[in-house]
Structures are given as structure tokens and as C-alpha cells.
Design goal:
Blueprint (H helix, E strand, L loop, with lengths): L4 H9 L4 H21 L2 H8 L4 H17 L1 H11 L1 H21 L3 H28 L6 H29 L2 H22 L12 H12 L2 H17 L1 H4 L1 H8 L6 H5 L1 H19 L4 H19 L8 E3 L2 E3 L1 H31 L5 H6 L3 H21 L8 H11 L14 H36 L1
Antiparallel strand pairs: 1-2
């Protein structure tokens, strides 16, 4: 990719160019917009649009999984268009998509809006990371991506925090107007402040990327690990698929799923550098670190199931619901597990790439979330339907009992007595993923030893 004169001048003037800081600022806005919406996506689809829990889960599964699949292909288009035009297109699509979600509460408009958000988001993921890489060199690239990662987490945290107030005070649909406004602001920041990075005629074509994708998916070892690690993300993404409905239906409308979900990025930001450094110093292999993550994650799900057995706790004079306590601890464990997984999985992925194809393999490592979201969101609706149904679909008598229980008068209706079984299902997925990883490690180690013996003989 070729820098423009203005961008080169910026690099000479400062450690990072103005394009770098502009891109990171808009990344913060985009992540705040996305997570403000995404934390309540299944609530939106059921409570406002009228889909069932099962339908909402399946729609969210397709939306979120394809969103992780498209960026590499969108990046090829962005290379041809140029970064500035790509970002303007992306934020225009996002702003329109979020606005439609808030303004038109119909099923056809919902599909249109999710499509716009999916395509716009795919461009953002590829172009912003491309800008960070382009505006840094070997000496400061690690710090550049740490700044980018910080912006992602600040955006995620702030978006979900503000979304709680808007949902409670104004209504769920108004969260989408917040998201639209943030993307509208980002559009004008890019329009007036982003100094273009041209890359026309460079990069891979869609056809070349598709051929590369086929090479990745036919790498049996790498794809096996991707599917196994998908089990981790199937559990972790229950922060968005299941947890909001679960807590609002078992604790009540006063619960704050947006804030509970923020425990995850808080733990990751606080401990990921420390965990990565300690595992490196102790010479823990990347595969072993991944295994530790897969061992922790099912216990996080089991912890989240314990709301029915924990006593009520008091914190700073406030009584905490047992379900809230179980969820907070479980979400914290998820974040801690992610500290072991994310950096070391990227390391493992880079080592599996044939010579000259590291970028290709790194570009497709997000397929783990593709599989994780398909599974996690896909089964979430079924589990909610059977174990934690929508109170609005109960009989009048049961609905009255539910209202009284939420107010602290009596127990929840019997249909909620096994609501915690939902987390058993995800714990089982986690344990199966861990067992699969152990088998994977044994088999691959055996294959590698045989190759070494053949090379020596």
C-alpha cells in the first residue's frame, strides 16, 4: 500500500500519524455503538419485533457469525477503494442500519438493518486494523495495536454502560438511535479529519482471498483447533445471547445485564498482559495456555448456574440477588480464561502458517468466533424457551406469580425452577471442548514425533 504525501508528513512530525489517531477515535465510537446494540439484540428481536426466542437466537447466530467471516473479504474491496472511501461507506451503512432499527420496528426492516450493520462492520474491522498497521512500523507496532485494543475495550465498556440508562429511561429502541448518532459522528470525523491512505491496485483480489481461504480450511490441524476453540466462544458470547434475557427473567427489570457484561472487558484489560507475561516466563506453551482457558471456561458456566443455591449477599448496604452474584463471578472467570486464550491462540495460529502465509492465517483466525456464534446463539433460543421462557407468554395466573416473585413476594413459577440448567448445557460444551483439545494435543504430538524420527533416520 502507498502512503500519500500528507500521511508521510504526519509520520515525520509525530510518532503516529493523524490518520492513526483519527482511526482509533472512530473505532472507539463504532465499538460503543455496536456493543450498545449487541448486548440487547435478542431482547430487541423478541420484545420489540415479535420473534420467538428460538427465531431471535437463530437470526443473531447468522448475523454475528457472518460478521466475523466477512472482514477479510471486505478488506480486499477496501484495498481497491482506498481506506477513506471505505470508512465513509462503512459508517454510512452503520448509521443507516442503526437508525432503521430504531425507527422501523418491523421484521422486514430488521433484516435490512442487520444486513447494513453486518456489511458496514466488516469494512470497519478490516480497514481500522489495516490503518493501525499502515501507520506504524516494526519499532512501535506492538504499542500501536495495544492502543487500538484499549480503544476497543473503552468503546465496548462505555457503550454498554450508557445503553442501560437509555433502555430503562426511554426504551430499547432508543439505544439504536444512540448507535446511529455515534456512527454519524464518526462519518464526519473521517470526512474532515482522516488523511487518506491510498492502496488502489494493491492487495489481494476476492478470488485470491477465496483461494487462500480454501487453503486454510483444508489445513486439517488448524481447522480442528479452530472448531475446538469455537466451543470457548460459544460460552463466552452468552454474555449477549442468553445472559440478558436470563437475568431479566429471573431477577427482574431492575437488573443490569449491560453492566454485568462489562465485568469481562474489565478483567481482560486488567490481567491479559500479566497472564501473557507469566505464561511466557514459565515457558507455558501456547497450546497449554489454550488448554487452561478451555478448562476454566466450563467452570465459569457452572458458576453462573449457582444463583439458585447462593444466599443473598450485602455489598455497601445493597442486597445482591444470588443470580446476580453468580453471574458476576462467572463472567469474571470468563474474562480470566480469555486472558489465557486470545494472545496465545494468535501465536499458535501464526506458527501453523506455511512460510509466506502468516497474514493469511491470521486473517482467518476469527473463524473461531464464526463457529462459536453459530453454536452459541443457535442453541440459546431453544434453551431459553424450555428452561427460562418469556414471562409475557405465560398464562395470566403465572404472569401474576412471576410479577410477585420479582417484587420479592414468593417464588418464581415452576416453569423457571430449572432455569439454571441452561448453564449446564454450556458447561458441557466447555468440557467437551477441553477433552477434544487434550485428544488433539496427544494426536498432533504423536504425529510430530513420527516426523522427527523419519527426519533423523
Amino acid at each position: 500500500m502507498t502512503e500519500t504525501k500528507t500521511d508521510i508528513q504526519d509520520v515525520k512530525k509525530s510518532k503516529y500519524s493523524s490518520s492513526f489517531w483519527t482511526a482509533n477515535a472512530t473505532e472507539l465510537l463504532e465499538r460503543a455503538a455496536f456493543y450498545a446494540m449487541f448486548i440487547s439484540i435478542t431482547l430487541y428481536l423478541t420484545d420489540l419485533i415479535g420473534f420467538t426466542d428460538i427465531e431471535a437466537g437463530l437470526i443473531s447466530a447468522v448475523f454475528s457469525s457472518v460478521l466475523y467471516f466477512l472482514p477479510t473479504f471486505a478488506g480486499a474491496v477496501a484495498d481497491k477503494m482506498g481506506f477513506k472511501k471505505s470508512l465513509l461507506l462503512a459508517f454510512a451503512l452503520l448509521a443507516i442500519g442503526y437508525f432503521i432499527m430504531g425507527a422501523f420496528l418491523t421484521k422486514p426492516s430488521t433484516f435490512i438493518s442487520l444486513f447494513f450493520i453486518m456489511v458496514g462492520g466488516a469494512f470497519i474491522k478490516s480497514v481500522i486494523t489495516g490503518t493501525v498497521a499502515h501507520c506504524s512500523d516494526e519499532d512501535n507496532r506492538a504499542r500501536a495495536f495495544s492502543i487500538f485494543y484499549m480503544m476497543v475495550n473503552i468503546g465496548s465498556f462505555s457503550g454498554k454502560t450508557v445503553a442501560k440508562f437509555i433502555r430503562v429511561d426511554y426504551g430499547l429502541e432508543y439505544v439504536n438511535f444512540l448507535s446511529a448518532g455515534l456512527c454519524f459522528l464518526a462519518f464526519f470525523i473521517i470526512l474532515f479529519l482522516f488523511k487518506n491512505i491510498e492502496s488502489k491496485g494493491e492487495g489481494k483480489t476476492i478470488g485470491e482471498i477465496w483461494q487462500g481461504f480454501l487453503r486454510v480450511v483444508t489445513n486439517f490441524r488448524f481447522m480442528t483447533l479452530i472448531v475446538i476453540v469455537g466451543g470457548f466462544w460459544a460460552i463466552q458470547h452468552q454474555l449477549y445471547a442468553t445472559m440478558p434475557k436470563f437475568v431479566l427473567r429471573t431477577v427482574g427489570p431492575a437488573a443490569s445485564p449491560e453492566w454485568y457484561a462489562n465485568v469481562n472487558p474489565l478483567v481482560v484489560v486488567s490481567f491479559v498482559a500479566l497472564v501473557t507475561e507469566v505464561t511466557k516466563r514459565l515457558k507455558v506453551s501456547s497450546l497449554t495456555s489454550i488448554g487452561i482457558a478451555l478448562l476454566i471456561i466450563p467452570f465459569s458456566a457452572l458458576t453462573m448456574s449457582m444463583g439458585n443455591v447462593l444466599p443473598k449477599l450485602s455489598l455497601f448496604g445493597q442486597i445482591l440477588h444470588p443470580v446476580t452474584v453468580a453471574l458476576l463471578v462467572g463472567i469474571g472467570l470468563q474474562g480470566f480464561a480469555e486472558c489465557f486464550l486470545s494472545p496465545r491462540f494468535l501465536e499458535y495460529a501464526s506458527k501453523q502458517a506455511p512460510e509466506g502465509e502468516t497474514a493469511l492465517y491470521m486473517g482467518f483466525q476469527n473463524i473461531t468466533s464464526f463457529f462459536g456464534n453459530l453454536l452459541g446463539f443457535g442453541i440459546s433460543g431453544y434453551l431459553l424457551t424450555y428452561f427460562c421462557p418469556d414471562p409475557n407468554k405465560l398464562s395470566p395466573e403465572l404472569y401474576t406469580q412471576w410479577q410477585n416473585a420479582i417484587a420479592g413476594n414468593g417464588a418464581l413459577p415452576a416453569v423457571y425452577s430449572h432455569a439454571h440448567y441452561i448453564w449446564y448445557a454450556f458447561a458441557l460444551i466447555g468440557f467437551l471442548a477441553f477433552i477434544a483439545l487434550v485428544i488433539f494435543a496427544k494426536v498432533t504430538q504423536g504425529i510430530d514425533k513420527k516426523k522427527e524420527l523419519r527426519a533423523e533416520s
